[in-house]
Write a structure and sequence with these properties.
- With about 500 residues, this protein is α/β, with parallel strands linked by helices.
- Helices cover about 30% and strands about 20% of the residues.
- It contains 15 helices and 17 strands.
- Helix 1 runs parallel beside helix 2, helix 3 packs parallel to helix 5 and helix 7 packs parallel to helix 8.
- Bound molecules: ligand TNX.
- The site of ligand TNX has 10 residues, from loops.
Length: about 500
């Protein structure tokens, strides 16, 4: 494969042809878009205005010297595919759906000089190479998980995380909202979950939670970027914060102390008390009501104190609770011990467990979301010198995150069984947004390319150079990142 380093787009598009003269934005450039395209056009104008200082406006009129966004039913590239044609006269972006236009806008951003990402006026020139790009994702679920339970992150920090992720065409934000160290989402019928359960975090900090309006703010913000929020309420294990809030969730009727350490596997809801199921029905009902996306994540991992047969019965029952809210259940791979509902998604993470249960899951119609810890866990150290992070799955350098294929990751699980790929950032050691960025970049773009680009378009030697070209963008956005020695940064 001959790398075309002049087109440093990540994830690599399905097809790129450099055929024309470049387009140069200037004082007469207009953005043309109709009513249905207006939202994405507004986003594009906002993305270009601060750094170019150009008087760009979105107009419904086709005009010369134009960047045009058009929905077009004949663009047969799926819900997120797009076509981008650039020549000296115009930039034409077309897609069947607004989400496709939005993904195409991310490509356009990356075709412009990195200084486009600054928030003050820069000199230019604002040249876009004369390309024809045809593009569509390989997988429909291209996720990033953020653990806001071990350490709490504010609404603005979560929005920042979304904004950095969408540059790489991530389309799912999985929020790990509850764990031993904190319960982060308000539930009206169980107010102590946040009254008590949100009051701390790993290391003993103040914690925090999202009132429903804050959660809705995040969901709406994600929605304007065509990102689906998948909320996770982790049960029956990882529940010390809930157990500390309500004595009746404990088998001995006694609430434990809040937990600020990092051990896992010690807590579990009392599975033979009726109040536990009232609790679960209320919680999933309230979370479903404020979640427009089709998925609720039930966790299910590492419930080490629950006997196997009880766990299996619970895994079956919790999916029914989710189904009764009209949503589809997602669970960590342990959930496959139960009877799977049609439409359930099993999230693979534990590389030490053999494929048997996953294969059984796909046989019964479930789909698999791939987050193998030795590839997709953003909380693993990059190398032995990384100050932050865990290493139970080994060190995960950029090349590890990049060089694997979803169709062969689990023996017997085929491409058709895979709904997508998700990078997961657990935050036991990740305390602030600088840390989040450091662990996320550059590995999230690597995972994003695994999830988006066709297998035969992916090649490490080519990726290294395209990834290197992202660094000036992160610098322009004041985003922290790991200067991996594997990447030829300039
Ligand atoms: C395992 S992965 C966990 C999390 C930890 C993570 C740390 C999974 C489903 N459970 O509770 O945060 O390891 O890497």
């Amino acid at each position: 494969m001959r790398p075309d380093r002049s087109i440093a787009v990540v994830p690599r598009p399905v097809s790129v042809v450099v055929a024309n003269d470049p387009f140069v934005l200037d004082g007469s450039t207009q953005v043309s878009a109709g009513g249905d395209e207006a939202a994405v056009a507004g986003y594009l104008v906002d993305a270009l205005r601060a750094s170019t200082g150009l008087p760009l406006t979105a107009t419904p009129e086709p005009a010369p010297g134009v960047i045009s966004l058009r929905l077009d039913g004949d663009i047969d590239l799926g819900a997120e595919g797009y076509r981008l044609d650039v020549d000296r006269e115009s930039v034409r972006l077309r897609a069947r759906e607004p989400a496709g236009l939005f993904r195409g806008v991310q490509t356009l951003r990356q075709l412009l000089p990195a200084t486009i990402e600054r928030d003050t006026v820069q000199p230019g020139p604002w040249q876009v190479p004369g390309v024809c790009i045809v593009d569509r994702p390989r997988f429909m679920w291209r996720g990033a998980m953020l653990d806001v339970a071990r350490h709490f992150f504010t609404v603005d920090e979560v929005k920042r995380f979304i904004d950095l992720a969408v540059l790489y065409k991530i389309n799912v934000l999985h929020l790990h909202l509850t764990d031993d160290q904190g319960w982060r989402i308000a539930i009206d019928r169980w107010p102590e979950l946040t009254g008590i359960g949100a009051s701390t975090e790993v290391g003993g900090g103040r914690g925090g939670f999202y009132p429903k309006a804050d959660y809705t703010d995040i969901v709406d913000y994600a929605g304007t970027r065509y990102v689906t929020v998948v909320p996770e309420i982790d049960v029956p294990g990882h529940t010390n914060a809930a157990l500390a809030s309500y004595p009746q969730l404990n088998c001995d009727g006694r609430a434990p102390q809040p937990f600020t350490g990092t051990q896992v596997g010690f807590s579990a809801l009392c599975l033979d008390r009726p109040s536990t199921y009232e609790f679960l029905a209320d919680v999933f009902d309230e979370v479903a009501a404020i979640t427009p996306g089709p998925f609720l994540h039930v966790g299910g991992d590492e419930a080490r104190t629950v006997p196997d047969h009880e766990y299996a019965a619970f895994a079956t029952r919790i999916q029914k609770i989710v189904a009764s809210t009209g949503k589809r259940a997602v669970g960590w791979q342990e959930m496959a011990a139960g009877t799977l509902e049609a439409g359930s998604v099993v999230q693979y993470w534990n590389i030490d467990e053999g494929p048997a249960r996953l294969l059984e899951a796909v046989r019964t119609g479930a789909q698999v979301l791939l987050s193998p810890a030795d590839r997709a866990y953003l909380d693993m150290r990059y190398d032995a010198r990384t100050a932050l992070g865990n290493d139970w799955a080994g060190c995960v350098e950029v090349r590890d995150a990049y060089e694997w294929d979803p169709a062969t990751a689990v023996d017997g699980v085929t491409e058709a069984d895979v709904i997508g790929v998700e990078a997961a950032l657990w935050t036991e050691t990740v305390a602030d947004i600088d840390d989040v960025e450091f662990m996320t970049f550059p590995r999230l773009p690597a995972i994003a390319e695994v999830a988006w680009s066709p297998a035969d378009r992916r090649e490490w030697e080519d990726f290294r150079f395209r990834l290197a070209a992202q660094a000036p963008r992160w610098e322009a956005m004041a985003a922290n990142f790991h200067r991996s020695p594997q990447i030829p940064w300039t």
